[in-house]
């Protein structure tokens, strides 16, 4: 019996699974600065500054400020300002506002992202097979409302429901976000649900902990993939391989 015949729902991660970032973070910070006549900030310093600023914001105000009722734009403005300061760029308020507006707009569009060639065909195939398709992502509301639709991944044609941490107030690896997905799917049993992601800690472990089947994608040939396999995970290169495996009788995930 094929794995597909035992499923009623497939859920998927977004970044690293369906889409990827295009270019460097510094590209967008540079374009924003140059647009108002300023030189490009140093790429490496901005990247390091952003990593630290994002980690601090995610710790203080998780799920993009959900519990604190912090507006999304305020969360990102605080994060981006801190990124620049840590990188050594303490712009005055008017200058920063102009730069930030451009950065916020860029990352709320399709510009910084690229869709993997197999993403849309796989999601449509799963829905054509009668499966509910859901998105589970540590992301803010713009992914649901703007970014994914702009990338051709639309609710109603590619996916049926979404669980986004910024809208739910819970994020991976908390197993609760997977339970919310099952509820949104119509209380489908976890053993009838497959989750596909690209992180052993945030995707595979919590999905399995609630009883879902789980598969990890290794699109970028990460060295960690060997450890994932040793830990019992089914690791595949792309969604084409997932689709092939689901229709065979060889899958055990």
Question: Which SSEs are present, and which pair or pack?
Answer:
Elements: E1 9-12, E2 19-21, H1 25-35, H2 43-60, H3 62-65, H4 72-87, H5 93-107, E3 113-115, H6 119-128, E4 132-137, H7 141-150, E5 161-164, H8 165-168, H9 176-184, E6 193-197, H10 200-209, E7 213-217, H11 225-230, E8 234-236, H12 239-246
Parallel strand pairs: 1-4, 1-6, 4-5, 6-7, 7-8
Antiparallel strand pairs: 2-3
Q: Figure out the total of helices.
A: 12
- Radius of gyration from the CA trace? 19 Å
- What is the global morphology? elongated
Low-confidence stretches: none
Which sheet architecture does the biggest sheet show? 6 strands, parallel
Order of helices and strands: EEHHHHHEHEHEHHEHEHEH
> Total number of β-strand segments?
8
Write out the strand line-up for the largest beta sheet, numbering strands in chain order. Answer: 5-4-1-6-7-8
User: On the 0-100 scale, what is the average pLDDT?
Assistant: 96
Structure classification: alpha/beta
Distance between the termini: 14 Å
Instruction: Give the DSSP E fraction (strand runs of 2 or more residues).
Output: 5-15%
- How helix-rich are the residues, as a percent range? 40-55%
How would you sum up this structure, described in words?
By secondary structure, this protein is α/β, with parallel strands linked by helices. Helices cover 48% and strands 13% of the residues. The chain has helices spanning 25-35, 43-60, 62-65, 72-87, 93-107, 119-128, 141-150, 165-168, 176-184, 200-209, 225-230, 239-246; strands at 9-12, 19-21, 113-115, 132-137, 161-164, 193-197, 213-217, 234-236. It starts with 8 loop residues before the first strand and ends in a 7-residue tail after the last helix.
């Amino acid at each position: 019996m094929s794995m597909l015949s035992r499923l009623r729902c497939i859920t998927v991660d977004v970044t690293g699974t369906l889409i990827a970032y295009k270019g460097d973070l510094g590209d967008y910070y540079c374009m924003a600065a140059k647009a108002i006549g300023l030189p490009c900030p140093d790429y490496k310093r901005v990247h390091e500054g952003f990593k630290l600023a994002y980690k601090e914001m995610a710790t203080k105000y998780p799920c993009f400020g959900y519990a604190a009722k912090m507006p999304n734009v305020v969360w990102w403005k605080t994060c981006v300002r801190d990124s620049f300061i840590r990188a050594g760029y303490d712009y005055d308020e008017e200058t920063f506002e102009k730069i930030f507006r451009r950065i916020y707009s860029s990352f709320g569009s399709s510009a910084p992202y690229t869709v993997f060639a197999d993403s849309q065909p796989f999601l449509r195939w799963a829905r054509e097979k009668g499966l509910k398709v859901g998105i589970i992502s540590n992301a803010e509301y713009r992914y649901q409302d703007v970014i994914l639709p702009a990338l051709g991944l639309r609710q109603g044609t590619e996916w049926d429901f979404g669980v986004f941490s910024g809208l739910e107030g819970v994020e991976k690896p908390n197993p609760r976000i997977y339970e919310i997905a099952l509820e949104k799917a119509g209380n489908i049993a976890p053993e009838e649900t497959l989750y596909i992601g690209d992180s052993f800690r945030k995707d595979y472990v919590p999905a399995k902990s609630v009883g879902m089947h789980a598969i990890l994608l290794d699109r970028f040939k990460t060295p960690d993939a060997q450890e994932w396999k040793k830990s019992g995970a089914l690791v595949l290169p792309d969604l084409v391989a997932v689709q092939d495996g689901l229709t065979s009788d060889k899958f055990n995930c």
